[in-house]
C-alpha cells in the first residue's frame, strides 16, 4: 500500500464523490465532463486534494480522490460546485435550456470514504489490541 505523507503524518485518505445535476437533467456529455474534470484538477491542489479517477453519466459524475488530513473538503466542494457551475453555463450556454434558474449542481452530494480493509477487520484489530498472543 502506498501512503501519502506530510511533515507530521502518514496517511491514506481516499474518497468517492458523486455529484448530481440539479433535477437530474441529462446534460453531461464527454466534452462537458472533460471540462468539469479540468476545473476540478485546477481547484483541487489549493485544498490538498488529488484526483484519482473520473467518470460520468448523463446526469452525474463520479470522482475518486485523495485528500490530506487538513483538507477542508466541504469548502473545496462548495468552491468547486460554484466555479464549475458558473464556467459551464458561460462556456456552454445551450445548457441553460435544460436547467431552471441558475442551478447546475444539486445542493446535495454523496461522499464516501474508501479504504483497504473492511470495517469489521478494523474493528477486530482494535478489539484485539492489548491481548497477548496465546
UniProtKB/TrEMBL annotation:
GO BP: DNA transposition
Pfam family, one: Y1_Tnp
Coiled-coil zones: none
Recorded GO MF terms: DNA binding; transposase activity
InterPro entries in UniProt: Transposase_17, Transposase_17_sf
Residues annotated as domain Transposase IS200-like: 10-129
Cross-referenced NCBIfam families: transpos_IS200 (NF033573)
PANTHER family reported in the protein's UniProt record: TRANSPOSASE FOR INSERTION SEQUENCE ELEMENT IS200, TRANSPOSASE IS200-LIKE PROTEIN
Protein name: Transposase
Species annotation: Peptoclostridium litorale DSM 5388
Amino acid at each position: 500500500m502506498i501512503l501519502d505523507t506530510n511533515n507530521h503524518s502518514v496517511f491514506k485518505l481516499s474518497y468517492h464523490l458523486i455529484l448530481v445535476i440539479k433535477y437530474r437533467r441529462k446534460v453531461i456529455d464527454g466534452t462537458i465532463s472533460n471540462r468539469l474534470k479540468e476545473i476540478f484538477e485546477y481547484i483541487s491542489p489549493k485544498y490538498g486534494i488529488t484526483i484519482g479517477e473520473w467518470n460520468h453519466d448523463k446526469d452525474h459524475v463520479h470522482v475518486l480522490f485523495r485528500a490530506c488530513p487538513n483538507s477542508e473538503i466541504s469548502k473545496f466542494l462548495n468552491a468547486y460546485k460554484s466555479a464549475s457551475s458558473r464556467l459551464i453555463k458561460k462556456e456552454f450556454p445551450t445548457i441553460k435550456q435544460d436547467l431552471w434558474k441558475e442551478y447546475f449542481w444539486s445542493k446535495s452530494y454523496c461522499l464516501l470514504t474508501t479504504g483497504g480493509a473492511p470495517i469489521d477487520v478494523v474493528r477486530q484489530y482494535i478489539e484485539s489490541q492489548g491481548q497477548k498472543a496465546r
